[in-house]
Every structure is written in structure tokens, then in C-alpha cells.
Write a structure and sequence with these properties.
The complex is a heterodimer of chains A (115) and B (110). By secondary structure, chain A is mainly beta. Chain A is built from no helices and eleven strands. Chain B is an all-beta fold and 110 residues long. The radius of gyration of chain B is 13 Å and the shape is globular. Classes of the chains: A mainly beta (115), B mainly beta (110).
Chain lengths: 115, 110
């Protein structure tokens, strides 16, 4: 199983809603990532988890709250978002962080629209 | 400061080789060069990576300049399924993170 599964595929939410994005992998990977991708732009790193601990936060606003309940699961909790937060949110995993030889496995993404 | 520079778009004919260039003039000695591609409505997928030497795999070849300030992804025979955005990425060893370039959109003509 070399898949990273993201749910939901599409999400529409209002600025006062609370919602969550979910990511799951069963490859035994110990590093998991959240990326944000705006239309026609490259993915931008948001968070990195290594061994279930947050290791990198790219100065992301607190309205985005990541959580790694176990080594297979990664959540992104969303609250009080702005319309400019509308984007494709990509989850990725790799065997470990701090390895330039490692391959990132990406999910298909969750497309978020904030009204 | 752009860490990698790629052309915005390129076009190729089907079954012909494609050479996708990338400049990374500020690369440090421990930074790896990766290439990923993203098909429409999908997440990026790994293509190839290298450090100093040229690399080959079933998907492509990676040619790295001797001074490592540039590299070229080579698709030996382009197919219509190779139409995608190709990202040249640096793994920044000192920061433990992958830095995506702006990408080259490859169009393959039948």
C-alpha cells in the first residue's frame, strides 16, 4: 500500500465554521507534511511532523491547527478561515525527515473553498 | 530569493526526448536535487533525485552539471501521459525541508 489518503476531497465552509481535514498513510512512514497550493502555484510547506511531534511550523496562522494522533494519521483543524485560505491542501509522508534521499508520497489533496 | 529557476512552459512532440532545465545557482554542497511532477487534479509524484552524479531510473534521467548550479530532467520518449507540471525541488539539508521551484508546464503534442 503506497497510498496517502486524504478526506474530504472537497470542502466548502463559512468563515465562522470549524472543520477538519484528514490524512492517512499505512506505509510505516514517520514523517508527515501539510502543504498548501494555490492555483497555478507550487505547493508551499505549512507543517512537518516527525515521529508524531511537530518539527516545523512555517509561521502558519493559528486558525490552522495540525494534529498527529498517531504515526498513521494527520489532521488539519480549520477555524475562522478567510476567503484567501481557499486552496488545495496536500498531505505527504516520507520514511523520515532529515533525509534528502527520501521520497515524498503525496495524497490527491483536499480542495477547500471558504465563503 | 528564488532557489530554483525553471521555464514556465515547454512543448514537445510525442515519442521525442524532452529536456527540462533547472537553475539552482545558490545550491549548497549538501542539498539534494529532486524532480516531481503533478498531473491535473492530482498530488505531485516523485520522478527522480540526485546529489552529484547523473541518475537514471525507469521514468527519467537526471543530468547534474559539474558545478551543481544547474540540472536537466530528461524524458527519453515523451508520451501524452507525460503532460504535467514538472517541479525542480531542492532538499535543503540545513533546514530539513523541500523547496519547490515554480514548475514547468509540459505540453506534449500528438
Amino acid at each position: 500500500d503506497t497510498e496517502v489518503t486524504q478526506t474530504p476531497k472537497h470542502l466548502v465552509m463559512g468563515m465562522t465554521n470549524k472543520k477538519s481535514l484528514k490524512c492517512e498513510q499505512h506505509m510505516g512512514h514517520r514523517a508527515m507534511y501539510w502543504y498548501k497550493q494555490k492555483a497555478k502555484k507550487p505547493p508551499e510547506l505549512m507543517f512537518v511532523y516527525s515521529y508524531e511531534k511537530l518539527s516545523i511550523n512555517e509561521s502558519v496562522p493559528s486558525r490552522f491547527s495540525p494534529e498527529c494522533p498517531n504515526s498513521s494519521l494527520l489532521n488539519l483543524h480549520l477555524h475562522a478561515l478567510q476567503p484567501e485560505d481557499s486552496a488545495l491542501y496536500l498531505c505527504a509522508s516520507s520514511q523520515a525527515v532529515a533525509s534528502g534521499t527520501g521520497e515524498l508520497f503525496f495524497g490527491e489533496g483536499s480542495r477547500l473553498t471558504v465563503l | 530569493d528564488a532557489k530554483t529557476t525553471q521555464p514556465n512552459s515547454m512543448e514537445s512532440n510525442e515519442e521525442e526526448p524532452v529536456h527540462l532545465p533547472c537553475n539552482h545557482s545558490t545550491i549548497s554542497g549538501t542539498d539534494y536535487i529532486h524532480w516531481y511532477r503533478q498531473l491535473p487534479s492530482q498530488g505531485p509524484e516523485y520522478v527522480i533525485h540526485g546529489l552529484t552524479s547523473n541518475v537514471n531510473n525507469r521514468m527519467a534521467s537526471l543530468a547534474i552539471a559539474e558545478d551543481r548550479k544547474s540540472s536537466t530532467l530528461i524524458l527519453h520518449r515523451a508520451t501524452l501521459r507525460d503532460a504535467a507540471v514538472y517541479y525542480c525541488i531542492l532538499y535543503l539539508y540545513n533546514f530539513n525541508k523541500f523547496y519547490f521551484g515554480s514548475g514547468t508546464k509540459l505540453n506534449v503534442k500528438p
